[in-house]
Write the structure tokens for this entry.
Amino acid sequence: MKAAIFSDFVKYANFFYSTISVQPYEDLGVKQSKSMLSLLVFLVGIINMNLMLLSEIVFVIMAVVNGNNFLEATMTMSYIGFVLVGNCKMLFIWLQKSALTRFVNGLKRIFPKDLQSQHNYNLHKYLKECSLITLSFSLLYMILIWTYNLFSIVQFVIYDYWLGVQEVEQTLPYLMYIPWDWHNHWSYYVVYAAQDLAGYTSAAGQIASDLFLVACATQLIMHFDYVASTIAGYQSREGERGLNRGVAKEEDIQFLRNIARYHAYLLDLSEQINHVFGLPLLLNFITSSFVICFVGFQITIGASPETVAKLILFLFSSTAQVYLICHYSQQLIDASTNIARAVYNQNWSQADVSYQKMLILIAERAQKPVQLKATTFVSVSRRTMSEIMQISYKFFAVLRTMYSNK
């Protein structure tokens, strides 16, 4: 078995970033290549996505002003929310690149590099879990976006071309305002390709950001668990036969100094990750509440079986995205607070008083849990998931009432 490297944790995130020509951080000591082609791909993707977003917003405004297409408008609001989340995550990664670079290189400094160290950290267990979850989430979102992107084509191939049971009209993957008649016109294929590209760009931006956050959170959890296990397993040298009392006391104190510095470093990294991802997480949770609400509303109004299948997939993916973040934040809470429990469980009764006092300080600092924060407004945990679902249901109830009174 060969030793793992840092990039093994973020390989799926980096893959999706590379498909939209985004470089989230810079490796210190590694020469970065910048090509005009990469910049062009990035700009084309961003500009195209925002043009599609603008067309969707215009469609919703016109539907509200004219008092028609209420159902189509609510569906388009789901698309708008989806694109906004992708937009925000890519924008903040670009704005916070230097901060993210500092955070990543901080994680790399304490990454266990040799096999023995990785065995002590139980690193391969964390890497296996991280890879499984990130791969599953990636596949889920790719199934979602390409189901929507290719739905019209698949309908034509199956019902019209293959079975010949019905003539399928030209439709686009997403509803939006287009100022010309694209039906039975060559521009239909251009608009279709533009919508597909916009959908993938948004999805890739979201996936990459979430996978990167999960990979970094996993490593922080691994380090906190290691600190807890190291503290719990340490035996005080006080009273050890054949060892000078003064030497034993100094060894114990030095051990705690190293642990305290390590713990403080992890707390600083935790603050850095919240600085980078805090605002995108807040916007993600707000937007996800509306998306879940609009999608749930569409499911309950009697859509066609094919549309309901698409909507259920959309609802499941949006819910899974929120739960993924809440789950890892909860794991961070558990791992960081376990340090205080490890201090209590240590065999400290034979140690010097100064050693015991230092243990109390470490335990006190570990009382405040480390967790992902959507800025200072929202501290994320599994409870946040239930709160978001409650908010979504309230909006859903309002929408149903409005629709029933029409």
Q: What stands out?
A: The chain has eleven helices and two strands.
